[in-house]
Design brief:
It is a single chain. The chain has about 110 residues and is mainly alpha-helical. The protein is about 55% helix and about 0% strand.
Length: about 110
């Protein structure tokens, strides 16, 4: 018999994740909530325009769905059976920042 584990990471709302990323990278973020109908319109428009311009859209209906809803995972089984430990988010983001700085992508 095989065991299955879902390792989803930190259970954060999208806004909280973006705030933490902005803090780590030292950038300002507009935290003003946009109406869902407007975001849907922008996502659909960008998706349609991508077919004409051949540029990838910044926002798609699919990505909007992912960031609009809260998905949560539960990792207690992996912790108990595998000794799984989740790296703190601030440490993870600091590692990502250092890596992209080391590779010259970010100054």
């Amino acid at each position: 018999t095989h065991n299955h584990y879902i390792l989803g990471g930190h259970n954060l709302r999208f806004e909280a994740l973006i705030s933490q990323v902005a803090k780590t990278f030292g950038v300002q973020v507009d935290h003003k909530q946009k109406p869902q109908w407007l975001l849907k319109l922008v996502a659909r428009s960008q998706s349609l325009m991508s077919y004409i311009t051949d540029y990838a859209p910044d926002l798609t209906p699919e990505s909007l769905q992912l960031i609009s809803y809260r998905y949560a995972t539960e990792d207690s089984k992996a912790k108990a059976e595998l000794g799984y430990n989740l790296t703190p988010l601030d440490e993870t983001l600091a590692d990502i920042k250092k890596d992209i700085q080391d590779r010259g992508i970010l100054q």
